[in-house]
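Quick one, probably user error.
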């Protein structure tokens, strides 16, 4: 599935991921391939991408959660996510 993470200043990430874990108002939620369409607000926390790599151009924006798993995190203050047809856009600050 394709995920794009945007802030008002720049593109944080754009590429293929296995899944993404997001901080929602009612708790964290996981979006995986073939997930139902969703639009949701996000609270402060970490956006976690489950993927083999984030690419050289975006690596500076992420922290690798651990060496064993391929989980990369990006801290946000708030935002919104729209996901439909295996494509997601996360607008955040």
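Nope, works fine. Designed sequence:
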């Amino acid at each position: 599935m394709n995920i794009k993470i945007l802030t008002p200043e720049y593109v944080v990430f754009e590429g293929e991921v296995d899944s993404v874990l997001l901080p929602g108002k009612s708790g964290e939620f996981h979006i995986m391939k073939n997930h139902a369409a969703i639009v949701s607000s996000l609270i402060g926390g970490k956006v976690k991408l489950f993927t083999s790599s984030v690419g050289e151009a975006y690596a500076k924006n992420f922290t690798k959660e651990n060496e064993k798993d391929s989980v990369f995190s990006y801290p946000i203050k708030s935002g919104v996510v729209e996901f439909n047809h295996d494509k997601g856009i996360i607008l955040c600050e």
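The CA atoms of residues 8 and 83 lie 19 Å apart.
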